[in-house]
Design a protein that fits this description.
The chain is an alpha+beta fold. The protein contains 5 helices and 12 strands. The protein has helices at about 30, 65-70, 125-130, 160-165, 185-195, and strands spanning about 10-20, 20-25, 40-45, 45-55, 55-60, 80-85, 105-115, 115-125, 135-140, 145-150, 155-160, 180.
Length: about 200
Amino acid sequence: MFSGIIEGMGQIGQIEEQGEVRKLSIIAPRMIKSLQPGVSVAVDGACLTVTDIGSESFSVDVIAPTRKRTIAEDYEPNHWVNLERAVRFDSRIEGHIVQGHVDSTGQLMNSVREGDYWVMDFSIDKDVHDLTILHGSITINGVSLTVSELEESCICRVGVIPFTFEKTNLGLLQLGGGVNVEGDLIGKYVSKIYSERGG
């Protein structure tokens, strides 16, 4: 489980294709000391298992289902990714409950600076749109964000403060750039119960 509070960014290093498995080396010197093989790390919001650790990087395997549901297929060397270690149960949850199970990908449709913050519009999948509520939570590239507007055309608008814009890869996105999207966990359970009861 994660909180959507990004601890830092890493850079994609070596990429190895082994059949349906894409092996990624992620350069993140500041995070290495707190990792060990077998632990989970959210990479742009996708929960991945650390398979190996080097002096300045760690490795993860991205298997076929994850490649299909995330932007990991588009990663190239030097690409910046958001990183978060799994939440400890004795710590505060500063963002919201994030599983690290990416529901779909989306795209940055618009980004405008308004005073001291940015307003960013993302296209999201209809299934995620149906789970999302105004002023609720959504996870974009692993970042916990509050929904400020939600359009029927499946556009989700969020406000991004300067700290988040500068300390995550949201500030590096180009228009049309792909992102990982995870809908709100509570919305998923409510939707499931409602549908099973004939709603």
